[in-house]
Amino acid sequence: MALLFAAVAMAGQWGAGWTIPQGAEARQNPKPVTPAMLKQGRSIFERSCQKCHGPQGKGDGPDSDPRSPAADLTDAFRAELNPEGVMFYRVMNGKPPAMPSFKSQLSADEVWAVVAYARSLRKAP
Ligand code: HEC
């Protein structure tokens, strides 16, 4: 899998037209994930993400457009394609038009917190 990431990252493309800069996928949360961080991430998720991604992160929130649904963040296949550095990049930069960019609303610490929380949803039943 690591080799695939490297190959895709070197090509400069990630998915359909979603450019991820070289090295972004290797970025890691600079802080250890703590219960306090997950709690902060949860409140950001409920405020900013849940309306599209759904309460369990399954992509079934009321604002999710059925023609371009919000991603199921708990899906094992997608999870494998989304190391935390890629999730961080996607939340920071969004993917127009459906996935908003949060760069101007959230600090890097807040994005890492919500990414940590979203990753914790993967283990939910
Ligand atoms: C307005 C609706 C909307 C909101 C709000 C939203 N998203 Fe998204 N998100 C989307 C859509 C739609 C996609 C899928 C984009 C695509 O693949 O074309 C997506 C994709 C993603 C992805 C990439 C997942 C993958 O497997 O490709 C991540 C990670 C993500 N969102 C996290 C978040 C987080 C965290 C928040 C809150 C800070 C958030 N999103 C808020 C609509 C939204």
CA distance, first residue to last residue: 25 Å
Query: How much of the sequence is in beta strands?
Result: under 5%
Order of helices and strands: HHHHHH
Bound molecules: heme C
User: What characterizes the major β-sheet?
Assistant: none
Q: What is the share of helical residues?
A: 40-55%
Any idea how many domains? Answer: 1
Number of helices: 6
Global morphology: globular
CATH architecture: Orthogonal Bundle
Q: State the fourth-level CATH superfamily.
A: Cytochrome c-like domain
Q: Spans with pLDDT under 50 lasting ≥5 residues?
A: 6-17
CATH topology description: Cytochrome Bc1 Complex, Chain D, domain 2
The CATH C-level class name:
Mainly Alpha
Mean pLDDT comes to 86
Gyration radius, in Å: 14 Å
Structural class: mainly alpha
Number of strands: 0
